[in-house]
Amino acid sequence: MLRLIQLELQKLWLNRASRVLIIISFILPFTVLILSSIKINFFGFFTLELGELGIFNFPIIWHITTFFAAQFKFFFAIVVVSMIGNEYSNKTLKQNLIDGLSKKEFILSKFYTIVFFSLCATILIGLATFTIGMYYSSYTEANIIFRESEFLLAYFVKLVGFFSLCLFLGMLVKRSAFALGFLFILYILEWIIFGLVSWQADSLDIAFNVKQFFPLESMWNLINQPMQRVVMTKFPDKTDIMYDYAVHWYEVAIVLGWTAIFIFSSYRILKKRDL
């Protein structure tokens, strides 16, 4: 496993564009550190400091930071599809197979790299969240500090699932730009199917129950938007905006299932393709 990861890291680091995108994908999520220190002066009347609003209190901070950081996953998604595109355009895929790397090892090397970068991103976001929380939070009890830290697991699974989808699309079309375009097409397709199910079943509830099993929707459901939850902390009497924001095991299982499908499908494509 380590040999395969080292092989991929060497390829990525020698490519200038990939190197820049990797650095950006790790740096941008840390803008949450900057946000936590922002002070906005409203014409001298009062100063709004985000850190004093309570949004960086434990345990809600785990929800907010992981949701915010997940929005920057597209930068590394470009790296993932480029890994495949460059293999075909530079003929390194064929050369690797000639040098003794099996097709299974080739796909595993990509998957291990995805897991490696997702794990690194999760650890860094976890450390950043813990640091901000310890500085701003009024709660210092261990049971409160680490409550809802399962959002880190959801963040990790979300990254692995999304990048595995990008790997599959890269293998399918062999071109980075087309692979990223297919992401948008898949997003539109999910909404079209949702509309058709809603029309046929004449029920939004049934349509939403079906939609939660779609690839992109299932990844989104892992970490729901925290905005309503922030409002709920300030206005607890607003029961009409209450919603289920927790991380559920079946949501994790759905994304892991899609991850397995994407990796296996990538291998099947490569195995059957004439290089």
Automatic annotation (TrEMBL):
Domain of life according to the entry: Bacteria
A Pfam family hit: ABC2_membrane_2
Transmembrane segments: 20-40, 60-84, 111-132, 152-173, 180-201, 247-270
Entry keywords, A to Z: Membrane, Transmembrane, Transmembrane helix
Name the UniProt record assigns to this protein: ABC transporter permease subunit
Species whose genome carries this gene: Winogradskyella marina
